[in-house]
Amino acid sequence: MAKWLATSYENQPIELWLSDSYGLAYRLKRYMWGFYYNKVPRDFRIIGMTHWLAKTGLASSAPAVAFFYGSVGAATAAITAAAIFVGNSIVSILDRLSREKSSGSGQAQTELMVRLGDLLTGMKGRAVAPADRDDAIRACLGILENYARLVTRSNKGDISVSLVLFAGNSTTKMKVRHRNPGNERPTNREFDATNLFGYHACMRGSEPRVVHDLKKFGGKSMLSPTQTKVNYRSIFLIPVLTRRGEDSEKVRGFISIDSPRPYAFYGNRSSVLVVTCEPVLSRINDLI
Asked: Residue 181: which of 211, 161, 207, 201 has the closest Cα?
């Protein structure tokens, strides 16, 4: 939900983002960043690599100590240290892969989401008392947060889900009406929405959109409409619709799912979220 100043010059990146009319070089660079943030283990990134090299180097230091005290020759120490280094590295990688494969919670949670979606679909059309609607909406946002954590492989507290709606009949003012349970960011503050990524997405239609990295849009994109510190880097924006008669729909606002990690929703992750959570999103549309 970061802001963007609405001058014609500064809106050029917004238009590129909305139309996704990037060139081949940018798409290639985006693919590389997406691979780096989502496929490369954190232990093998810049800071993690330093930690890993220090740990593995320490495990390989025994031959160097023996050489220092004259117990073995230089060639023997070098070969032995290299063998220990390679062996320890292979064991570390296999251990990580083993932990990932042994975790069967992902498939089980996905199936649980599907079953929950079936339940919500079965409840479609059933009225919810006005006094209970806010709680029901927050519960749905909590479901989205839980599944987004699974899809993006994020820790608890990393993912924030917000429902942002137009204030009354205004076409420029909006409010953050609800957030996922446990989210302490402020709500119900009215603000000018014309500088929001989410606002631009709503004005362009009902298609969900992803902001892969706020920092790529410059420093002015890192402003929050609720005047809180921006600690997120990527955002998944899903417009919220309500019916106007039999054949038309109106965009009422958007759902924002944000993460502190860039490219958290890259690739098919956003599509998986929309497809799997469609009954939850549909239920939110009904509740508002």
From this structure: 161
Looking up tokens 């494969």 gives 101
Q: Could you tell me the pTM of the whole model? A: 0.71
Q: How many CB atoms lie within 10 A of CB 114?
A: 13
Contact between residue 236 and residue 272 where contact means Cβ atoms under 8 Å apart: no
Cα distance between residue 139 and residue 286, in whole Å: 14
Cα separation, 195 vs 111, in Å, equals 38
Per-residue pLDDT, 104: 45
Q: For 25-84, how does the pLDDT look when each residue is reduced to its tens digit (9 = 90+)?
A: 888 888 888 877 877 655 555 555 565 566 666 666 666 666 666 677 777 767 776 777
- The identity of residue 176, as a single letter, is V
Encode pLDDT of 166-194 as tens digits.
988 888 899 999 999 888 888 888 888 88
Calculate the average pLDDT of the chain.
77
The beta-carbon contacts of 187-194 under 8 Å, at least 24 apart in sequence, are 189/225, 189/226, 189/227, 191/225, 191/226, 192/225, 193/164, 193/166, 193/225, 194/6
